[in-house]
Amino acid sequence: MTATTHRSTASPRPAPPGPVRPRPLVTPRWWGDLGGVGAGVSLLIVTALWVAHGGVRELAGGGAGAVSALGRLTGLWASDLLLVQVLLMARIPLVERAFGQDRLARWHRWTGFASFWLMIGHIVLITLGYAGAAHADAFAELWDMIRTYPGMLLATAGTLALVLVVVTSIRAARRRLRYESWHLLHLYAYLGVGLALPHQLWTGTDFIGSPASTAYWWSLYAVSAGAVLTYRLGLPAWRSWRHRLVVSHVTPEGPGLTSVYLTGRRLGELPVRAGQFFQWRFLDGPSWSRSHPYSLSATPNGQLLRITVKDLGDGSARVASLRPGTRALIEGPYGKLTGETYPGGPVVLLACGIGVTPLLSLLGELPYGPGEATLVYRARSAAEVAFRGELDWFATQRGVRVVRLLGPRAARPSWLPGQFAGHGDAEALRGIVPDIARSHVFVCGPDSWTEAARAAARGAGVPAGRLHTELFSW
């Protein structure tokens, strides 16, 4: 197998500004374990509260009472997981640093589906239990509960909002929606949580049956609401006000590819690392309220920030028309594709398409020596290779080996282009980077390509602790 290895002898553009080395932000490993234990303990607490309020006794008694008791338990689990789901995506810095947003998004989705089906089970079991006790028709009993029980109309509206969120979270449905539409619909989850609260506090025995229950549920709701208000609203507003980011200039990088340079105040105090991303809102018209996740494509240096956007439709197309002086609002930084655990030595960066942007910013920050860094850049054609001047600079000034793999995708799931698909994925990676097994490896690209590249790296002997990825999916 052959690939294009590029070592330039010229520097077509000035060297990028030297990076400001960030303060160490090494995340203790036990943070992740503590978060998982906390979620499990919360389920144990609500189960213990159910037992304390006679749940096991009613279950052992059989009949309609047992069905109702089981319905109460599924409702408690559903409510607890729903609030855990809110906390997972509340953008809490400690949680973000421990797990990374792509992992949190996956857990958020799994937790949401589990909570949803437990909620459906709660509705069905409570209805059947109450109908059995009253010797009534189940549908008539459900309608009677909705009409007459305190807070049930609001809870029904909240349930419908959560159904909408779940349906639009199914992968097939997400593919049919624009990112902006999906994001707006997803906010209905907060509405669903809020509308369920009156029903739980007015009629839920397991919520208000004892001082311990009341204290637990009010505390969990307060922590969840406080996290959202603080980290989804307050902190972004504070950083946007403090740093006053504005567009400095806009530069085309290639077909459908645009870089936006931003200046602001006290950028050296912004706690961002190379490889991370922000949610961006540009105050350039009616679409300002729609945020988009864009990675930094240059190492933050305390003077300028740069993002590079590919025209994929929706809001990304309008980035090319941004004017100097346009204000930008930010949420973040987010993401765990950083060099916080990289101590130096061999490093390999595997990029596909627009996935090269966070890896380009990492090239400016990672403390590798000459000849220790390899960038493998996958693109469909030479015309789609961006940042040629900067890649030349990294090749000549820092000894980065740049390998370009060009061509259409393979017919099989692979990180290789079609012309090289006859080679094994791990074998090809070892051929390109013989010392891959002792390297730190950073991977960024579309989901399917990233998974294939991850599998190739693991097959080539890269330990899991040295394999760093960031996924694009939403």
Automatic annotation (TrEMBL):
GO cellular component terms, semicolon-separated: membrane
Assigned keywords, A-Z: 2Fe-2S, FAD, Flavoprotein, Iron, Iron-sulfur, Membrane, Metal-binding, Oxidoreductase, Transmembrane, Transmembrane helix
Pfam family, one: Ferric_reduct
Predominant location: membrane
Membrane-protein topology: Multi-pass membrane protein
Cofactor: FAD
Single GO molecular function: flavin adenine dinucleotide binding
Region (Disordered): 1-22
Gene3D superfamilies listed in its UniProt record: Nucleotide-binding domain of ferredoxin-NADP reductase (FNR) module, Translation factors
Protein localization: Membrane
Family matches, as SUPFAM superfamilies: Ferredoxin reductase-like, C-terminal NADP-linked domain, Riboflavin synthase domain-like
Domain of life: Bacteria
Membrane-spanning segments: 30-53, 73-92, 113-133, 153-173, 185-203, 215-235
InterPro entries cross-referenced by the UniProt entry: FAD-bd_FR_type, Fe3_Rdtase_TM_dom, FNR_nucleotide-bd, MRET, Riboflavin_synthase-like_b-brl
Domain FAD-binding FR-type, chain residue ranges per copy: 240-340
UniProt-listed PROSITE patterns: FAD_FR
Keyword tRNA processing carried by entry: no
Positions with biased composition (Pro residues): 13-22
Name the record gives this protein: Oxidoreductase
Organism of this sequence: Actinoplanes nipponensis
Organismal lineage: Bacteria, Bacillati, Actinomycetota, Actinomycetes, Micromonosporales
